[in-house]
Amino acid sequence: MEEDAQETIYQTILKQSHTETFKREEESRRWFRQKATEVSKNKTVPTKIILEKEHVPAIKNIKQVGSLFLYNYAPKHKKTLDYYDTFPIVFPFKMVTQGFYGLNLHYLPAPYRAIFMDNMYSLLNSKDMEKDTTRLSKMTYSILESRRNLRFFKPCIHMYLHKNIRSKIAFIPPKEWELALFLPIQRFQKKSENVVWKESKAIIKQGIR
User: How much is the pTM?
Assistant: First the structure.
């Protein structure tokens, strides 16, 4: 029974959303966030979400700026890092030869994540969240740094190497961003999520990386 709950939890919330009527886009976002935060961490398995191809089709590599991806990751320098997330959920914003720079929103506690994501919607290339081509195409480092309402980005920036991705890569459709971003699927190593989030808030407060 426990295994069935793990396999269907993402799909269940999506199905529940189909029975809801939302007057505004903001209501939809709030609903997904509430449902996602109600989910127990012990019943949420990141690898199950990655394998649910019907909802988050897997791709072979990451080349697109501004889309949302989830995968299992083993950092090259994990032995010397203070902490790291083995299941990052990332918006890439700059491609480089061996990988990409991206924003892993798991480094923000849920309230900060919600505020930051609301402000990030201004960087969309389209407001139609039903299209898989909708993405944060206007996102660049200079934009993130120049806008005060996007200042929460600093603790989220990380570089990811293609060769260190240890699973299939799940492309999260834009219409499912709110659900995926607020599911408790972060898996921090070496330090607890509360310690990581405390340090992230300190970075934001100091205005330095």
Answer: 0.91
